[in-house]
From TrEMBL:
It holds the Pfam family V-set. The chain crosses the membrane at residues 376-398. This is Ig-like domain-containing protein. It comes from Patiria miniata (Bat star). It is a single-pass type I membrane protein. InterPro entries: Cell_adhesion_signaling (IPR051275), Ig-like_dom (IPR007110), Ig-like_dom_sf (IPR036179), Ig-like_fold (IPR013783), Ig_sub (IPR003599), Ig_V-set (IPR013106).
Amino acid sequence: MYKYQKPGTRTSMKSFAFDSSRKMAGIAFAVLCLVAFSGATVFLDEPDNLTVEVGGQATFRCDFNQDYNCSVLEWVYSSSQCTHGSSVTITTCRSVSLVPSFDTSRFFSTFGKSTTLLQINNVQLSDAGYYACRIADLNEFSRCGHLTVVDPPTPQCTMLSSSVRVGDTVRLMCRVPEEALTRTKLTWYPSKTPGSTRSLKVDQGQSYTVYHVLQESDKFRVFTCIAGNDINNGPNCTLYPFEIKTVSVRFQQEKSSGNSALMFECVADPALPDTRYSWSVRVAEFQNGTQPEWIDSGTDHRFVIVGDQTRFLLFTPKKDGDGLQVKCTAYTAIGTSKTSEALTIIPFPDDHFVTNDPSGGDENSQELSGTLLLSYMWIGIGGLSVTSVGGFLIMCFMCTRRRVLDNQEDY
């Protein structure tokens, strides 16, 4: 007897059976892959290569594909190469092995069922080498992580400020050189709060900048930026906000009762009320053709210090007109100093002076600067003597001078 069958029923059942078979095959394939992967991959995470500065911290990690008893887990080390035969066990879950050249008090390890960590504190140069974890009962070693230990670089200090008066805000910048091998910890000292530090880790070529409002007490201290983890002995650079940048000597001619004298001024930048000055002089008397020595101005009675800070120096030349060189040194409140270039003064019988520095004199003395020396021709009546101090000095006795351009005599 013919039995009625609903159209499409047989086809639908076949399709359902095919789909079920395909899903089961997929699940079976996934299980096989998982089993195969589990057998081939013992370590899911292995130690990485690290570069750490002396005094820093290094951490290595291993993750396993299954749980293990910690008694079979250990960390091994080799100083020269990543080979099983050259490594020694440095720590297990029960103890830290005593390994020559290792300060084991700095090594800490944690062991979980599927994870283990090795942490090295206060890293030293002797800690450099290869580190790996090992499953002892399987004799399986992880990939080695190489630890490179470097000394911190010498930082570079810069102060950015438009002025350096008490109450001004300055920017103190500390920079890690481009050639540094890793991130560097920078610490500014002293800090704003006594007993605390201002530290920041920065990348190569980057800076750590702090803002500081200058106080009266800052005149007597320097700011230090220390690189690395040893704030007592690490490489450093220093900044003194009130450091003297430039020193120069200015002069002007003074006349009193028919006698000529030279007043010298020591000009420091920045010039603070606490700045002190000293003077060195060299008088060209040319006895026996010998070059004169630099002396303290206080040893020659012709020089008189003017003012409490010795900023001014008064010189009364002899009638015969000795040549003269002058230098001044400016001192900060903490004793650092900067010295000016030597200023050469050449007196002539007609009460004119010539200097080697056009900017050294006042408005009246400028016309006698070294640049105008070439505009005059000196004609000796009785005799002419030529010698040198600091590059040049002309001594002319009983002479008149004549302008080269208009041939007019000055007396």
